[in-house]
Write a structure and sequence with these properties.
By secondary structure, the protein is mainly α. It has helices at residues 15-21, 25-35, 40-44, 54-61, 64-73, 86-92, 96-110, 115-127, 131-140, 155-160. The protein contains 10 helices and no strands. α1 runs antiparallel to α2 (25-35) and α4 runs parallel beside α6 (86-92).
Length: 176
């Protein structure tokens, strides 16, 4: 790692981890520029103690510009299998644009995730009103329609409790 991009916390977070977590877009861009000369892919794939990359931290902030800057250097970042997946992090925090970006970069890999991981992401998207990605996932894998959350509720049950999920006019009920 470059002198500026190094481990700086007890949790083995790098300068890039902290800058992304602090949502410091300009600093991240400057840091990435300096990293270009010193093995940028290795620097971007550095993981902290629990296996998270700086992209996971960017996903947590929802800053799409930071994520795009990282992805411009290493487009495989969202597909690393360690720690919390950036896509799941963004979905769990309801960052719609970040979820759309990361899903567009990972949809082929998501199809290969374990069934329970796909189910968790699908449920998380529905619970977070991220219906576009949830629908894309359902079109690819209809089996996730039966996924349940930690309380044993299906997606249909979740949607039934959320009338705002259904766009359109209500039809009048005619009894006779």
């Amino acid at each position: 790692m470059t002198r500026i991009q190094r481990i700086i916390t007890k949790q083995k977070e790098t300068t890039l981890h902290i800058a992304a977590a602090a949502n410091q877009e300009k600093f991240v861009r400057n840091l990435l520029r300096t990293m270009i000369y010193d093995n940028p892919c290795e620097n971007l794939t550095a993981v902290n103690e629990i296996g998270n990359t700086a992209l996971t931290y960017a996903a947590a902030t929802g800053n799409v510009n930071i994520a795009m800057a990282m992805l411009d250097i290493n487009s495989d970042l969202p597909n690393l299998h360690s720690g919390v997946k950036p896509l799941y992090m963004a979905a769990s925090l309801g960052h719609r644009k970040m979820v759309q970006l990361l899903y567009s970069k990972t949809k082929e890999v998501v199809r290969e995730w374990e069934e329970d991981e796909q189910d968790d992401l699908f449920i998380t998207c529905v619970e977070g009103d991220l219906y576009g990605v949830a629908l894309e996932m359902l079109e690819v894998n209809p089996n996730i329609a039966t996924a349940t959350n930690k309380d044993g509720e299906t997606v249909l049950q979740l949607l039934a409790r959320n009338p705002s999920a259904f766009v359109g006019e209500t039809q009048p009920c005619e009894l006779f």
